[in-house]
From TrEMBL:
Species: Aminipila terrae
Pfam families in the cross-refs: DUF5105
Xref: InterPro entries: DUF5105 (IPR031343)
Keyword Signal (UniProt): yes
Annotated keywords: Signal
Annotated stretches, region: Disordered: 281-303
Protein known as: DUF5105 domain-containing protein
Chaperone is among the record's keywords: no
Ranges of residues in domain DUF5105: 26-170
Annotated signal peptide: 1-21
Length: 317
């Protein structure tokens, strides 16, 4: 009987020790990544702050449009655990995480979004178009993948491993989507909307009109610039061409502006941007000649749209 009690006690101690140990850090990471891939929010939240990973609303609701987008991104997730180390209530797991490279997809999305933004569609119609386009792009069988090696930090709370959602981890899981967002923000100089719109308005007035179309038309009228001074027309054309190349950045910026308050401004910009391209093409096809008005361009629409653009900015302010 005594021997039986000793064996039973030993068995109890072994089972209790195993039970207290719980799952290993690498298993916690695997379970989390499997849940994320399946877009299983409930299962994933056992290990991570799912709101932080997927950028949900502050009230905890997960907008259906975002949910569908994340499902499309996360379904392509794959991973490989490389190593794991544990020190008391802290652990690190090194893993290779692979997903579709989102950069070329988002670049194409923004390129297409520019045309759609100036189409006059309602916000609801635009959202439907964006989502349909995104689904088509992400399901392209020729999409390339990207692999990030990530060191994942875990902390044990109440005998359960919790995973820290770092930007590095979120970026790897989303196929570099965090990096793409940061690059976009940096490309816009981090300025607020008002500053950026003033910058665009100034560019239109100074670089495109005063030093460009206006001087060129005066040159075709009397052989001088708009101030009556001598002008190097070849240099002026080169400067105008360089200035117009900046428009691609501004097209992208205007396309991503959200909110009904910007609808009028975006509509005007669509006409203005197209008119700049049209005038530039006319000038290249029929280069300006001194005192030859047949080589000039009709800037009436440009002036109309440019004035309207400035007025619309002033309304916002």
């Amino acid at each position: 009987m005594k021997k039986f009690l000793i064996i039973f006690l030993c068995l109890f101690i072994v089972l209790t020790t195993v039970g207290c140990g719980g799952e290993k850090p690498e298993q916690a990471v695997k379970s989390m990544l499997d849940a994320v891939k399946a877009a299983n929010q409930e299962a994933a939240e056992k290990y991570i702050d799912y709101d932080k990973l997927t950028d949900q609303e502050e009230d905890g609701s997960f907008a259906s449009k975002n949910e569908e987008i994340y499902k499309l991104i996360l379904k392509n997730l794959n991973y490989k655990i490389l190593s794991s180390s544990e020190d008391g209530d802290k652990a690190t797991v090194k893993a290779e995480i692979t997903n579709i490279d989102m950069k070329p997809i988002m670049d194409k999305m923004f390129s297409d979004a520019i045309a759609l933004a100036f189409s006059g569609l309602s916000d609801e119609q635009l959202e439907q178009k964006f989502n349909k386009n995104f689904e088509k792009l992400i399901n392209n069988k020729d999409n390339k993948t990207i692999t990030n090696t990530v060191t994942i930090t875990l902390n044990k709370k109440d005998n359960h491993w919790k995973i820290d959602v770092s930007d590095e981890l979120a970026n790897a899981i989303s196929g570099n989507l965090i990096t793409v967002q940061k690059e976009m923000k940096d490309s816009f100089g981090g300025s607020d909307t008002s500053d950026k719109l003033d910058e665009i308005d100034s560019w239109l007035t100074e670089d495109i009109w005063n030093k460009g179309f206006c001087d060129i038309n005066w040159y075709t009228y009397d052989g001088t610039d708009s101030s009556g001074d001598t002008i190097d027309i070849e240099f002026t054309l080169q400067q105008l061409d360089s200035s117009i190349k900046v428009k691609a950045e501004y097209d992208k910026y205007m396309g991503q502006l959200k909110g009904e308050e910007y609808n009028e401004l975006k509509g005007i910009w669509g006409k203005l941007s197209a008119e700049i391209d049209s005038l530039s093409s006319q000038i290249k096809n029929n280069p300006p000649k001194a005192s030859d008005e047949s080589t000039g361009v009709d800037t009436g629409k440009f002036e109309q749209y440019s004035d309207a653009f400035s007025d619309a900015i002033n309304k916002l302010e």
